[in-house]
Amino acid sequence: MAQGCLKCLKYTMCFANLLIFICGVAVLVFGVYMTLNFKLAALTPTLASFNFANMLLVCGIVITCVSFLGFLGALKENRCLLLTFFLLLFILMLVELTAACLLLMYESEIDRLVKEDLTMGLDKAKGTNSTSEWDVVQEKLDCCGVNNVTDWQPNVPPSCCLSACTSQQPEYRKKGCLVKLKNFFEENFLTTGISVIVLCIIEVLGMCFALTLFCHISRSGLGYKL
After folding, report:
1. How many CB atoms lie within 10 A of CB 103?
2. Residue 61 lies in a domain
3. Number of domains in the chain
4. Tens digits of residue pLDDT in 188-213
5. Which of 18, 71, 149, 191 is 20–30 Å from 61 (CA)?
6. What pLDDT score does 44 carry?
7. What backbone torsions phi and psi does residue 170 show, to the nearest 5 degrees?
């Protein structure tokens, strides 16, 4: 009975990690596609090398590597791979929880840094006359500038105008993008929190499965010796 349960655990772990590996490959391929076909700069100087495509690449690489270790370790009943899989999941969970705590503890400081970075990005866009990224954000979020339209003056981009910018008294979008972005994150705070909790639960289950299989292999004398 115990052997049957452990075999079920082994193949369940293999199947789950295989699915996660396929998802990781899909994310990685999409990240490569975005990198090659969409040469978009970020809104801020700090995020210039950490745009959406790069985030997809990093996430895809991490997911594929960790899930491959879990799949191979369970399939081959290899203690070294299972222990590495366990440690990587533990480190990832610590990083996620630490990031969440830091965001809550230093919320005001982060707001100030984001505002300064957005202002620098807007000044850079004004200097180069390239506002394509700002145009997308301003149209999608119905905002203008960091605080308001005065951030763009005297050359206000068309994406700030609700009516034709060529008219005598054009109507501009009233709210700044900083306020809109804060409202967007606040509205999606619950969804983000639930996603992090679900992700942590999956990671804890993965660690429990790996540790259970590791202990069984150690007791039975199978797998590679440590």
Report:
1. 12
2. yes
3. 1
4. 778 877 888 888 888 888 898 888 88
5. 191
6. 59
7. -65, 145
pTM above 0.90, yes or no: no
Digit-coded pLDDT (tens) for 21-74: 998 899 888 888 877 765 544 555 555 555 667 788 888 899 999 999 999 988
Task: Give strand pairing partners of 161.
Answer: 172
Segment 107-152, tens digit of pLDDT = 788 888 888 888 888 888 776 766 667 777 788 888 888 888 888 8
Distance separating alpha carbons of residues 80 and 155, to the nearest angstrom: 61
**Is the distance from CB of 84 to CB of 220 less than 8 angstroms?**
no
Range of the structural domain that residue 176 is part of: 2-220
CATH of the domain at 46: 1.10.1450.10
Rg of the chain over Cα atoms, rounded to whole angstroms, equals: 24
